Structure to design on (318 residues):
């Protein structure tokens, strides 16, 4: 009995320690591979691929709920959004959308999911918990690629391949309420943590536009590399990262001065990116290298290249 009592005390003492370890475990990066029909799962603690998830025939955009239990992946081949059970590692549901769905994002609170549907010239707004389609919202830009929530959940900014503006959707009203002029072919979008500013990469003018969301206008233009594409914002709001598709680089922008402070070589055709919640590492999908480059943000240097599937489109981290 004394030995049993001692063992029970040891287990009770270890439980909170183990629980704390689980809570502090490094997040995972999820990478949709458009040509492989899969999602590669990367453990950000080791920067190793730990599993592959089947994800339709042509997965492109990806988002996740706040807990990472469910992934939302657009499948261009079936014109649908796949709701993937991340525990089971398999699609649990398919929501049929219009033709050629692309970028997908989830609100920070997990209440909504938005999908840019290219050939519909619209954004599909879904309930983030049930996957039920709530609205199909028409936008002015043709061939919309990204629809990104502001951190406060009030707005969606929408970029389109055939546009010189980003369209503003009021989430509560479920309609477009404004357009903001930027450069030709806006692509990646990122918000400051307070939702006050947005950063838009414009591919055909090789620049990042800084938008004041209160004024609803661009207040600065920052020269970037050739075919500026993806955007990621550091959790501190002090740095913005832009990928340059032709140059094979990622640039670091200081948000206080709107100046480029570093240029980092990555793989071929870097596209969409994501940053860890602590801001320590940036993960860059290299479409033509079939890899993900890992950038240490403190030193602004590449520390790893991780082989994934064919034609990786982007990254989400949970």
């Amino acid at each position: 009995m004394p030995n049993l009592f001692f063992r029970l005390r040891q287990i009770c003492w270890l439980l909170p320690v183990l629980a704390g370890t689980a809570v502090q475990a490094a997040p995972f990066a999820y990478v949709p591979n458009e040509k492989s029909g899969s999602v590669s799962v990367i453990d950000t603690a080791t920067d190793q691929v730990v599993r592959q998830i089947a994800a339709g025939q042509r997965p492109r955009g990806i988002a996740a709920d706040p807990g990472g239990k469910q992934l939302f992946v657009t499948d261009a081949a079936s014109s649908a959004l796949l709701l993937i059970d991340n525990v089971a590692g398999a699609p649990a549901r398919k929501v049929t959308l219009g033709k050629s769905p692309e970028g997908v994002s989830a609100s920070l609170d997990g209440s909504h999911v938005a999908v840019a549907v290219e050939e519909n010239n619209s954004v599909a707004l879904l309930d983030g918990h049930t996957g039920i389609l709530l609205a199909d919202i028409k936008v002015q830009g043709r061939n919309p690629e990204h629809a990104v929530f502001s951190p406060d959940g009030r707005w969606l900014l929408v970029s389109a391949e055939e546009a010189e503006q980003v369209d503003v959707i009021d989430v509560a009203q479920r309609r477009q309420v404004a357009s903001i002029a930027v450069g030709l072919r806006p692509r990646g979008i990122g918000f400051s943590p307070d939702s006050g500013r947005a950063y838009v990469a414009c591919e055909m003018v090789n620049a990042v536009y800084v938008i004041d969301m209160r004024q609803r206008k661009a207040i600065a233009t920052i020269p970037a590399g050739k075919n500026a594409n993806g955007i990621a914002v550091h959790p501190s709001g002090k740095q913005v990262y832009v990928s340059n598709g032709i140059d094979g680089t990622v640039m670091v922008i200081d948000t206080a001065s709107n100046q480029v402070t570093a240029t980092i070589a990555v793989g071929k055709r870097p596209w969409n990116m994501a940053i860890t919640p602590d801001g320590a590492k940036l993960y860059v999908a290299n479409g033509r290298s079939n890899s993900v480059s890992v950038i240490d943000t403190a030193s602004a240097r590449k520390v790893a290249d991780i082989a994934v599937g064919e034609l990786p489109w982007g990254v989400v981290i949970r």
Remarks:
- Residues 2-23 form the longest helix (22 residues).
- Helices lie at 2-23.
